[in-house]
Amino acid sequence: MTQDLIINLVASGLAFTLGVSVRSVRQRMLNAKESAGSRRIKEQRHPRFTHGWLLEYYLRKDRLDDLYLLMEGNRRRIVPFLTKPSWTNHDFDENVLVQQTSPHRRSDALVDEEVMRRRRAYLAVDDENGEPWNDLLAVVQEVRETDDGPRIKLALAEYFQFLTACGAIEDETYAAVRNPRSPTPIRDAVLGSVDDAAHARRGAHGFGMQCAFVFPEEGRLRVLIQRRSHSVSIYGGALAVVPVFGCQSMDLSDRTPVSIFHNFLREVYEELYGGEEVEKRGNRVDATWFYREPPIAGLIAAQDVGEMEFRILGFGFDALNGEVDICGLAYIKDPQFARRELPLLKANWEIQEISCWDLWGEELTDAMFAGEFSPGSVYTLAEARRHLAEAGET
To answer: pLDDT at position 275, please?
Structure first.
């Protein structure tokens, strides 16, 4: 009997040890798979991953002229950013360029759960209470040419509609880069050329802004540069200007207008000063309540007296996923800005790291030509340089 007991104990111990070992091996395999998947996602979301494929795609279609050409001395780089000469104008008035109705049109784009499943692998689509974050965003329904210049027609879409519409093109492109035999029917239908892109056929092409924030420091012009967090919807880990954001209506409803300048102020408050997210304004009725916060009140006052120049430089479609980027410049002329404000800046969750670069420096030029920046930020920086050079601000 004692012998049987010993045998049973030994057998139980072996079974337990074997079970633990099997579970440990299974967990290590699962962890390795998840780690490889995470590396794969981070790799493909950097602009370098798709750059060559996108250039080859538009070359085959004889549409390279639809893409932005970065030029610096004898250096040339084609940037996967669909734009036209008429879409670059340093004197755009947002109230003329952007067309919208009240109440806003609403997108009828469908949400694709498979696309959303892939987004959930690296995006937090729920708020801190575990509820889906699916607020309304501005989207482009059409870009139309007129005798007086281009006009961008806006509507509103839910965040998940935008993730589906643009994410499906993005996913299709990643698959084609990894397997050249993969078809690209969505891209062929909606992003085959800049003229195709202007029809915005997906119904929820995001409408965002990338803005070069420029200021003097010790006799040189400096620009804020960020490395994007891996939690943002596109180009996680890439370099970009600050701020970068999707536009929303004033109070996030369909009753108030989409203002580019209001969205700029909102994102500066959130991205650069660590301010409370404006959409979570609690019981405040006034959607512009944060205008009275010291850093934003200072910017508004600076613009009023000509110490801040805010302008739209142009726009285009990101060739990776069909988002529309309004590209702009916020030029602070106050020589004391850097000394006074830089110690107060505090980036939010969208930014992995942030620093000041010499706007005219070789380091910035090299990073632009090396493909470190998102396409919209390359356009923004190049046009900001051109505008300031023409104004004698070098």
So the answer is: 81
